[in-house]
Amino acid sequence: ECTMIRRVTTPLLALLLAGWVVAQTTDMDPEQYCARRDDEYFRKDFGDPAEFASDYRANCGVYYRCVPAPAGKRSISASQCQSELFFDVQQQICERKSKVTNCEQIDKEHPPQPFWPLREGEESQCKSGEIMCGSGECLPQHRFCDENSDCADGSDENICTPDKDPNRADVCEPRTCLWSQGCFCSVDGTRIPGDLTVDQTPQMITITFTGAINERNFRIFQDVFKDTVKHKGNDCTPKGTFFISHGFSNYSAIQELNRVGHEIAVSSITNNDNPDYWSKLSALDYEAEMDGARLIIEKFANITANEVLGIRVPKQRVGGNRQFRMMVDWGFLYDSSISAPMGRLPLWPYTLMHRMPHKCLGNDQNCPSQNFTVWEMVINEMDRRDDPQFDERLTGCHFVDQCANIQSPEQFRAFLDNNLARHYRTNRAPLGLHFTSGYFETRRDFLREFVKWVRETALSGDYFFVTMQQVINWMEAPTELTAINNFQEWKGKCEVKGQPYCSLPNPCPKKVPRIFPNEEEMFLYTCMECPNTYPWLGDPHGNGFLDIPDF
């Protein structure tokens, strides 16, 4: 749990705080503190920690940042955590005192950095086309961020971010990226594909659920996506996208979701809850996690090969260039793990053939920096205020689960209406409503409100609940609202009737103590033949030929 800066609520307190800031920064020289510091927070340097340990401890809740000042100079801004919190300089957040162990650490620690990008006025000591490593040697630019450590200190692989990678993708240039030539990009991500007018753009809504599918939440999904509800605009039933994590999933339920037209995508085999695991995972391990999860789904949910094309990384911890290179190599169409901050307009999905049109959001997030033929189904920040017009600005949320202030069905309905209105009245970028798979299990009153909202919205005319792949289909062939009833890419599985493939799936019991030590026996429910062992990393078909490591 982290808490941000204490909010000033009275003029007197504002004056006191202003005086405190001045007192804290008057003896700090900006030229000394702000040299080669970017936007990160830091602490005041009191000297040798062994001698001044009490000073560091007493000021552990105080943190600083270099900000622009008049005449092109920089000044130091001071802030303070709430009284019960300390500032964790490594995580760059205020945290409970018992969790902070770096009070004597001045800056956030970084791995070795090359001398790149050069600051204003700096000159390279290397030949043209070369960059100096942090360890001093010069290497050709193309050897940086190629997933091989070539510098003696490994610094060539430590700047692979969208703003620093010397081989990063080009910025969108609309004058050369022409729709008539099959190219589309948007400088800021807000441009409507095909340059359609707002009133002729269908408002797409993507409902996604991430996690394991079981018998309980499967019944909930059937309530949300009732086969009796149809869009007024094209007579198709609402559809959603399910990002499946393998453990505890019921593959007969997944098969049925796919049969009636919902999209099935992957969210890994292990669902590892350590964010660093996903940020630092190799391309080979990403293949084992994501393509392995796809193989499990294809086999045990009987889904056609090349139909599962989407990825969402657990914890939304993107794996950088390694993840996206794996996606290209193994035929994945899109990722939906990257979040975007709220701006003047919501963002449309974009391809990574050009540089990301927004800031890489998240502490130590590992966003892709290079050119990949992959779509990013960006997760827009949602407004969680009860009244966006008059309420004080709040930090938004990207998953609905994160909107902790929503306590009643009435608030939930207002939240849905307000965010839909924001998209509909501006550029009609797809509205993403993202939930964990168990969200409604403990919120039955919210579920009733959501079922009602989906029905009423679908019947309104301009709104369409579609899958991620259907959004991409439309963006690749923008079709005006007046012709949407004939848009064939949305007609597949438009209205599916009939019975499930099997009403009594095989409850394949498997002992998996090394994977799930708290479970005596795991059941893999499938309409297909039972595997020899519980499918896992390195053995997605459950043949039992490979030893399963501890996870």
How does this structure look, described?
With 551 residues, the protein is α/β, with parallel strands linked by helices. Helix content is 21%, strand content 14%. It is built from 11 helices and 19 strands. It has helices at 11-25, 30-33, 53-58, 215-224, 251-259, 275-279, 283-300, 320-329, 409-425, 444-458, 468-476; strands spanning 62-68, 74-80, 85-88, 93-96, 130-132, 138-140, 203-211, 241-244, 263-266, 310-311, 334-335, 339-340, 350-351, 375-376, 379-380, 431-436, 463-465, 506-510, 522-526. Strands 7, 8, 9, 16 and 17 form a 5-stranded parallel sheet that branches. A 4-stranded mixed sheet has the order 10-11-14-13, covered by helices on one side. A two-stranded antiparallel ribbon has the order 1-2. Helix 7 packs across helix 8 (320-329). The longest helix is centred in the middle third of the chain and has 18 residues, at 283-300. The chain is globular, with a radius of gyration of 26 Å. It comes from Cherax quadricarinatus. Residues 1-23 form the signal peptide. Residues 31-105 form the Chitin-binding type-2 domain.
